Amino acid sequence: MTRLIDALLSLHEAKALVSVCRVMDIEPKDLLVRSRARLVARRRWIAMWLLRQNGMPWPKLSFPMIGKLLGGLDHSTVISGVRKVDESWELVELACALQDRALAQAASHAE
Questions:
Q1: Element at 52 (helix H, strand E)
Q2: pLDDT tens readout for residues 9-38
Q3: Are 18 and 50 spatial neighbours (Cβ–Cβ below 8 Å)?
């Protein structure tokens, strides 16, 4: 029974990651790359930020779960990524625009 629950939770969380990637117009594999290139890192930070938001079409995930979804990153790396978005006006604007897009897509699918 516990394995079934774990599998369902993992599936639910994986769907959240796929939804975030769809909103960002990227493939999940693009976030799993172990690159520190600025573009790749910014995409990862924004995905981390989106996965931590309440009221989205996907559940708010814990820092350890986000790290696990993004290829086994430590929870402190995820905390750092979310903070980087929060501390940058440019990234906050981009992340909020993506958040609005996600909510609009969810509303159009609900109709």
A1: none
A2: 577 788 888 889 899 999 888 888 888 898
A3: no
Amino acid symbol at 24: M
Nearest to 32, CA basis, from 67, 71, 68: 71
pLDDT band at 7 (very low <50, low <70, confident <90, very high): low
Question: What CATH number corresponds to the domain at position 82?
Answer: 1.10.1750.10
Q: Residue 49 belongs to what domain range?
A: 2-110
User: Tokens at residue 67, please?
Assistant: 């790290």
Q: Is 56 left (phi over 0), alpha (psi -120 to 50) or beta?
A: beta
pTM for this model (two decimals): 0.85
Sign (positive/negative) of CA torsion 6, 43, 56, 17? negative
Q: How many domains are contained in the chain?
A: 1
